[in-house]
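hey can u check if this looks right to u? its 275 residues, i copy pasted from the old doc so theres a chance i mangled smth
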Amino acid sequence: MNRYLLVMSCIAVFMASCKVLPYQKTENYIYLQKPKNGKPNWKLVWEDNFNGSVMDTAKWSKIPKGTADWNKHMSSDPACYAQYGGKLYLRGIKNPDTSADARPFLTGGLFTKGKFAYQYGKIEIHAKLECAAGAWPAMWMLAEKNKYGKYPNNGEIDIMEHLNSDSIIYQTTHSYYTLNLKLKENPPHGGTAKINIHTYNTFGLIWDQDKLVFTLNGVETFRYPRVAGADPSQWPYDQPFYVMIDQQLGGSWVGKVKSEDLPVQMIVDWVKVYQ
């Protein structure tokens, strides 16, 4: 009997070690979803619930300052970040010391570039968006490896953008096809969805070889399909993308920032990726 139990235990350990994963992992941080047939059986492959008091640097990096509207105020200033009570706070603030940094505003944002990227699957982000004139919180993705060259050739997936105190969010795709060839309606490259700005919402994307399906609180809100016979630049979404979440401020799209409305913040409860 003891020998039988030993054999069965060994078999159980072996079977556990042979567990079928829904992805193939490359470079130790890029998750490539395996081909699937039929209805997906989602498995959680990556998450952050923001427990603890500091950012998990194995998962995230602070987004550096840039020259575009969206990143011109990005900063590593600790005042733009907080983590407590199982929540991440990304803030847009008035710059408290313009003698050291002349920018009038500072903003906080994180990305997973070089630490986590995935190709195909489902992402959901549970968060609350605060409102202010000039507030522009965003959740989006860019290509990890730049398979097709410089931006916008590799595409951009905007899971959620919110402007000012609007009662809608924007969910959009950008690429060489939409920006350079200006083919924004064949198919439509973006949509909007009504949102309750006073509570937490779950913003999501389901992505496979043929389509991008945007969701809000688990309900499909917009779909961007791969079009047979279209210019190849219509579908750069066949490569790994990394995740970005940031509290932006100001710019030609969102408009001017009202200093008296600051600080403003995006409060992120969790981020989960499934394949």
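The CA atoms of residues 204 and 219 lie 9 Å apart.
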